[in-house]
Write a structure and sequence with these properties.
The complex is a heterodimer of chains A (about 280) and B (about 325). Chain A is mainly α and about 280 residues long. Chain A has one domain: MetI-like fold (Orthogonal Bundle). Chain A is built from twelve helices and two strands. Chain A has a two-stranded antiparallel ribbon with strand order 1-2. Chain A is elongated, with a radius of gyration of 23 Å. Chain A starts with a helix and ends in an 8-residue tail after the last helix. With about 325 residues, chain B is mainly alpha-helical. Chain B is built from 13 helices and two strands; from the N terminus they run H-H-H-H-E-E-H-H-H-H-H-H-H-H-H. A two-stranded antiparallel sheet of chain B has the order 1-2. In chain B, a hairpin with a 2-residue loop joins strand 1 and strand 2. The termini of chain B are close together. Classes of the chains: A mainly alpha (about 280), B mainly alpha (about 325). The interface between A and B is large, with 42 and 46 residues.
Chain lengths: ~280, ~325
């Protein structure tokens, strides 16, 4: 429950980012160089990275941008990319999985090899490499979601395929087939609902994984580009400032950590709720 | 068994070929013109044409890919007019940015990545196995709960976050360790280890969480088995029962897991090397991605794929050697 509450809170923060910034009276892109100590190389004035009534979580070293405004906007990128990629993975994975399960022997052979190939590869590295060649004109968050999907739809497809293969032999599916339903209708109307539980578990697990991928890519400078804020990207800047301004490490790091932990706990809860061996307890 | 071996190796080769073909096509059919990238700054029409001819970029893609494979196996020559560059096998081409052969760049950075990976893996196995075993033996006591919680934390934390926290604690606050700077093992083993402790730890903690979970499950399973009960009934000391017998059963799945985790370790290593500024293959990957240095990107990707496929094949073969049930008839 704590996991769910935290996730809901984070989503709310992400959705309300402009509102929260308006309450604080700051925006994520304005430079405040007057708040920086130029004698110490651009470390914020004041304790805890320049925390003040105006800047609730201090300002960024070197640029003086408001940290609170940047982390709440960063939440939009992190959660948006993670959820977006998960939805896309489900769409692609289900399509391929059902295609393999229902498309006849030849389609199954081809698609299965494809799934194996996609699972055989270190997906993060491929995502990183892909970010080098994707069109630069598209919005980066959308691009990230697509690239993450492109390298990690394999698990969804595999689960869908194996479940579809076992479900299609069930009596109720045979009944539908005998009453003259087309394979596509059987796949979507009869078998897909039976896949809800395992896919929901997988999807819940995928959200934190995708969030780590996004944070990692942004950390490496291959994700969202400044001035768009992202937690991973802030942490990457923090690597150079950790000695002088620990607050700047702790704020985005703590948020990322909490959100990931909450998502993992939530995923574990979903798994237990869906697993009959746990009797629905969570 | 021999047929199984051949078939498994054959499958691995096919996967590798498919992988390299996809990667190659993906990167050389991109909207950006590779010739322009290769030509670099101060490029004019004449040099562009020369580059194009030298790299064979005006050939159809399958011919280019064939030359790429040829280069990998027997080496290849790049010629533009009178001067010929011979690139010995395994040739991955020349970097667009530095004009160095990609193979040499990789070989130069491999020791750093290997130092990081092997050290971290050893540490992870040690930490993970002891934590898992401890948690299995202290079942239901506070120690188990703490270990389970820590394992969950390790599971859901990206490596660069752990790295930053370690830096904050050991480097900024306690000032016990320096900010890592790579010193080669052959030059100064002490400094080598001292500089690598933090990266090792960061990488190891992530892996240890996985190993701890598997060891715990394995140990819990073997501890209630009949043969363990029999050893206990014979009056063997608890230490021997666990050390000699329970641990063995618990560790069998780890062998396969270690191989499967290779991909995971590589991902984490890329992040670790970048954050600690270690000049390894991972950092090279990031640099080449950010500067769109296609031959290097393709080279690293193919190398990474090869390592993963090899690791999985070896794990399968080991598994089959140990357990006849895993061999298809």
């Amino acid at each position: 429950m704590a996991g769910l509450a935290t996730v809901v809170l984070m989503v709310a923060v992400a959705l309300a980012a402009p509102l929260l910034c308006a309450i604080e009276g700051q925006d994520p892109t304005t430079f405040h160089s007057d708040l920086l100590d130029s004698a110490r190389g651009g470390v914020p004035h004041g304790s805890f990275g320049g925390v003040s009534a105006d800047h609730w979580l201090g300002v960024e070293p070197a640029t003086g941008r408001d940290v609170f405004a940047r982390v709440v906007h960063g939440a939009r990128v992190s959660l948006g990319v993670a959820l977006g990629a998960t939805v896309l993975e489900l769409l692609v994975g289900i399509a391929v999985g059902l295609g393999a399960g229902f498309g006849g022997r030849r389609a199954d052979a081809v698609l299965s090899r494809l799934i194996e190939l996609s699972l055989a590869f270190p997906s993060f590295l491929l995502a990183l490499a892909l970010m080098a060649i994707v069109p630069q004109s598209m919005p980066r968050p959308l691009l990230l979601a697509c690239v993450i999907t492109a390298v990690s739809w394999g698990n969804v497809a595999r689960v869908t395929r194996s479940q579809a293969l076992s479900l299609r032999r069930r009596d109720y599916v045979d009944a539908a087939r005998m009453s003259g339903a087309r394979p596509s209708r059987i796949a979507v109307r009869e078998v897909l609902p039976g896949l809800t539980a395992p896919l929901l578990v997988l999807a819940a697990l995928k959200v934190p994984l995708n969030m780590v991928s996004e944070a990692g890519l942004s950390f490496l400078g291959a994700g969202v580009r400044p001035p768009t804020p992202s937690w991973g990207q802030m942490l990457s800047t923090a690597t150079t400032w950790f000695r002088a301004d620990p607050t700047y490490v702790i704020v985005p790091g703590g948020l990322l950590f909490l959100t990931l932990l909450a998502c993992t706990v939530l995923a574990e809860g979903v798994r237990r709720a869906m697993d009959p061996r746990w009797g629905g307890r969570s | 068994m021999i047929w199984f071996l051949l078939r498994r190796v054959g499958a691995a080769v096919v996967v590798l070929l498919a992988l390299s073909a996809i990667v190659y096509a993906l990167f050389y059919l991109t909207p950006g013109d590779p010739a322009v990238l290769a030509c670099g700054r101060g490029c004019n029409a004449e040099r562009l044409a020369q580059t194009q001819q030298k790299l064979g970029l005006d050939d159809p893609i399958y011919v280019q890919y064939w030359h790429f494979l040829e280069g990998l196996v027997v080496g290849r020559d790049y010629s533009a007019g009178p001067d010929v560059d011979h690139c010995a096998a395994p040739c991955l081409g020349y970097s667009f940015q530095t004009d160095q052969p990609v193979t040499a760049m990789l070989m130069e950075r491999l020791p750093v990545s290997a130092s990081l990976a092997f050290g971290a893996e050893a540490m992870a196995l040690l930490l993970g196995v002891s934590a898992g075993l401890l948690s299995a033996l202290r079942r239901g006591r506070p120690a188990e709960r703490i270990l389970t919680a820590v394992t969950l934390l390790g599971y859901s934390t990206p490596v660069f976050l752990i790295g930053l926290v370690l830096l904050l604690v050991f480097c900024a606050y306690l000032q016990w360790l320096p900010f890592p700077a790579y010193v080669s093992l052959t030059r100064n083993p002490g400094e080598w280890a001292r500089n690598l402790v933090l990266p090792w730890l960061a990488l190891a903690l992530i892996q240890a969480a996985v190993y701890a979970r598997i060891t715990r499950a394995g140990a819990l399973e073997t501890l209630v088995e009949d043969h363990v009960r029999t050893f206990r009934a014979y009056g063997l000391r608890e230490r021997q029962v666990i050390g000699r017998h329970a641990l063995r059963g618990a560790l069998a799945p780890l062998v396969t897991l270690t191989a499967v985790e290779v991909a995971q370790v590589m991902t984490a290593a890329v992040l670790t090397e970048t954050m600690f500024g270690l000049p390894g293959v991972g950092k090279l990957t990031v640099e080449s991605v950010n500067s769109v240095d296609l031959p290097v990107v393709v080279g690293v990707t193919v190398l990474a794929g090869t390592v993963v496929v090899l690791a999985n094949t070896v794990a399968d073969l080991l598994h089959a050697a140990a357990d006849p049930r895993a061999r298809p008839a």
